[in-house]
């Protein structure tokens, strides 16, 4: 969404403003540009047929699992059925939404952008918080290992919560003007 200032209050959805002048949208755009390859290379290969999984992705996932001891990405598969559901949500919802969001954020004029990003943010916050709660309960990991996982999961949670609050505010501003 684009932003302008009217009577000292930032307004969103003003077409024609460059992405460089919309700092939050630029942050979200950068996130989605990074998020797409991460989904395909780290998260989603668990859903790929083994015969179609490139060796590079298997090596990358093995390195990730070995380095961070993240049991969600164990070479033997996800430890819980609910995490497999989260992966399918990512494949069926996050991938198309993320690809669409890159263009919508860059352009900044699509009226439904805040609605889509609010849904994305809420879903991502809930699933990420669930993963954090789960890995904090893993007794086989040291406190240091859990902190290292936190370096990956907590910023993702923080960004999704921030995005959700931002999109809620944008929608509230629009609805209050109606």
User: In percent, how much strand structure appears in the residues?
Assistant: under 5%
Note the total helix count.
5
Topology pattern, helix = H, strand = E: EEHHHHH
| Strands in their spatial order, largest beta sheet | 1-2
Strands, count: 2
> How much helicity do the residues have?
55-70%
- First-last Cα distance: 18 Å
Structural class: mainly alpha
Radius of gyration of CA atoms, rounded to a whole number: 18 Å
User: Residue-averaged pLDDT, rounded?
Assistant: 91
Largest sheet: 2 strands, antiparallel
Tell me the overall shape: globular
Low-confidence stretches: 1-11
Provide a descriptive summary of the structure in words.
The structure is a single chain. The protein is mainly alpha-helical. It contains five helices and two strands, in the order E-E-H-H-H-H-H. The protein has helices at 23-43, 55-68, 81-107, 113-137, 143-177; strands spanning 3-6, 9-12. Strand 1 and strand 2 form a beta hairpin. Helix 4 (113-137) runs antiparallel to helix 5 (143-177). The longest helix has 35 residues, at 143-177. The protein starts with a strand and ends with a helix. Mean pLDDT is 91; it is low at 1-11.
């Amino acid at each position: 969404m684009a932003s302008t200032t009217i009577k000292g209050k930032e307004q969103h959805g003003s077409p024609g403003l460059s992405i460089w002048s919309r700092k939050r949208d630029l942050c979200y755009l950068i996130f989605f540009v990074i998020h797409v390859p991460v989904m395909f290379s780290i998260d989603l290969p668990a859903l790929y047929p083994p015969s179609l999984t490139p060796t590079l992705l298997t090596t990358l996932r093995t390195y990730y699992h070995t380095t961070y001891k993240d049991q969600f990405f164990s070479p033997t598969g996800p430890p819980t059925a609910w995490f497999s559901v989260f992966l399918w949500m990512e494949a069926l919802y996050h991938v198309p939404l993320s690809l669409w969001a890159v263009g919508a954020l860059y352009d900044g004029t699509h009226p439904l952008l805040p609605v889509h990003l609010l849904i994305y943010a809420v879903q991502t916050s809930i699933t990420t918080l669930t993963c954090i709660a789960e890995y904090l309960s893993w007794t086989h990991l040291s406190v240091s290992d859990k902190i290292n996982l936190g370096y990956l999961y907590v910023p993702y949670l923080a960004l999704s919560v921030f995005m959700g609050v931002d999109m809620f505010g944008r929608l509230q501003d629009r609805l209050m003007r109606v």
